[in-house]
Amino acid sequence: MTTHTTKMLILGSGPAGLSAAIYGARAGMAPIVVQGIQPGGQLTTTTDVENYPGFRDVIQGPWLMEEMQAQAEHVGTRLMWDTIVEVDLTSRPFRLIGDGGDVYEGDTLVIATGAQAKWLGLDSEDALKGKGVSACATCDGFFYRGKKVAVIGGGNTAVEEALYLTNHSPDVVLIHRRDSFRAEKILQERLFAHKGVTVLWNKEVAEFLDGGGTTGLVGLDLRDTVTGEMSRIDVEGGFVAIGHHPATELFRGHVALDDDHYIAVEPGSTRTSVPGVFACGDVMDKVYRQAVTAAGTGCMAALDAERFLAAAEFDHLAVAAE
Ligand code: NDP
């Protein structure tokens, strides 16, 4: 068992955590990043990335994360392979314990543990991920331009994704298991006014249909949730938009969460309910959820942490001088 100490402890190694690390290292805080169970985060399970600024050609998600990791290490970040199982945020330095018993102490803590998209759980869905099935229209919608696509869900995300896809697709079908949406009224009004979207009420996906070979998704088998009747539609893109799970289980009872279990932050900052603890990326953002916005809030977290330490140091000196 070893104790690792740092001015800036970062949990999570997606674009948010690594951007916080790059800024934190360059500010002299010698950060430690504990990578967690999915080093590199959600982008490591993505293939083509076309919307991260700075690359004129399509790049691969795992490659982008390797580059970010190398950049973070290059400027002085220590990356640790560990999974935190226990946190104590009652006093500083904050104390976190890894599953092998190692202790991590940070004068500040940046939570960048991300979120996972919820899936329907069908084998055919799993088999066609990246081959027509996606959980992010903003990321992948462009690849289906000119094609008929479907969105599954009835919340804000589903309605926003359906509207977003009308930019690329002439024919968007929104499939919902009930006969009313839970999305905000204004979004619903926008959706109903849009001629490019057809809503199929009371339908659930029974199967994602594989065209075989390299074709990918070709359609959906749907079950009517009221009558049980089966039907089939042809689509080349299927976007599952039934919500996300923010990875906040570890922090329940330690840091304030919002009603959807995301870490609550002061508007316009990354400050959480615990002074010295900051949150960035998808673990605190349920609206934008992009690699570039995660990186942006990661930068904010490092700046907030640096300012926090500078203020704490100033208070300490002031008390010592009294
Ligand atoms: P929500 O939990 O709000 O909605 C999930 C939707 O998926 C529901 O309509 C639900 O159906 C449906 N669903 C869930 N599980 C299944 C399943 N197994 N099969 C079929 N359908 C299913 O998730 P969102 O991602 O839409 O939103 C999460 C939070 O983020 C909300 O608070 C939302 O307001 C917020 N948000 C805000 C945005 C903004 O401000 N612009 C943008 C996006 C999200 P049912 O209705 O029947 O339960």
Automatic annotation (TrEMBL):
<dbReference type="InterPro" id="IPR023753">
    <property type="entry name" value="FAD/NAD-binding_dom"/>
</dbReference>
<keyword id="KW-0274">FAD</keyword>
<comment type="subunit">
    <text>Homodimer.</text>
</comment>
<dbReference type="InterPro" id="IPR005982">
    <property type="entry name" value="Thioredox_Rdtase"/>
</dbReference>
<dbReference type="InterPro" id="IPR008255">
    <property type="entry name" value="Pyr_nucl-diS_OxRdtase_2_AS"/>
</dbReference>
<dbReference type="Pfam" id="PF07992">
    <property type="entry name" value="Pyr_redox_2"/>
</dbReference>
<feature type="domain" description="FAD/NAD(P)-binding">
    <location>
        <begin position="7"/>
        <end position="298"/>
    </location>
</feature>
<comment type="similarity">
    <text>Belongs to the class-II pyridine nucleotide-disulfide oxidoreductase family.</text>
</comment>
<protein>
    <recommendedName>
        <fullName>Thioredoxin reductase</fullName>
        <ecNumber>1.8.1.9</ecNumber>
    </recommendedName>
</protein>
<keyword id="KW-0676">Redox-active center</keyword>
<keyword id="KW-0521">NADP</keyword>
<dbReference type="InterPro" id="IPR050097">
    <property type="entry name" value="Ferredoxin-NADP_redctase_2"/>
</dbReference>
<keyword id="KW-1015">Disulfide bond</keyword>
<keyword id="KW-0560">Oxidoreductase</keyword>
<dbReference type="GO" id="GO:0004791">
    <property type="term" value="F:thioredoxin-disulfide reductase (NADPH) activity"/>
</dbReference>
<dbReference type="InterPro" id="IPR036188">
    <property type="entry name" value="FAD/NAD-bd_sf"/>
</dbReference>
<keyword id="KW-0285">Flavoprotein</keyword>
